[in-house]
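Chain A, query sequence.
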Amino acid sequence: MNQPVVDPAQALAVAAAVLLIELVVAAGLYVWTGIAFAKLFQRLSAEKWRAWVPFVNLAEVFALGGMSRWFVLLLLVPIVNLFGLYQFGVAAHRINRLFGRGVGMAVLAVFVPPLWATLLGFSRATPDPEHGRMDLPPVPGAALPQPPATGPLAEMPMPGQAPPAPVYDPSGAPAPAPWAAQGAVPPA
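Chain A, predicted structure.
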């Protein structure tokens, strides 16, 4: 009645087979991640060896995305790692914009980083640092230089122009008001 249902030797063999399969899958994922990140880093002019070191490869993604490498430490702290994943997504989105890709690739980077790195690293798109950069709105008067003012209204400030700086008088007399005309007498 107290006989074991499973032979201990068989259980040990099954456990060893499962462990061997897990090791092969983990080694395959490590090699895939290393190759994918190495290719991505090569295309972004970063050092390829960083792709093979765990957490250093993620820190390099943060750096290439214009963020601090120290954000990788947030991924190690429970609950705070959600903010770290958000920051990783932001860094990945910044890298995606270099390749002309959208937000969907950033979501892919958060959930499956090796696949994201493979798609960017082996794609035909070349990284363009100017891609996705928005043009600044025109600044009034900055596009065309304005000729110097002449005539009776030359002393009046132009709209949007800063008033002239007050004149420094070392004798202690107050500077004239910038809007007062030269030689005008203030009202009494």
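Residues 25 and 151 are 83 Å apart (CA to CA). The helical segments are 8-43, 56-64, 80-98, 103-111, 113-121.
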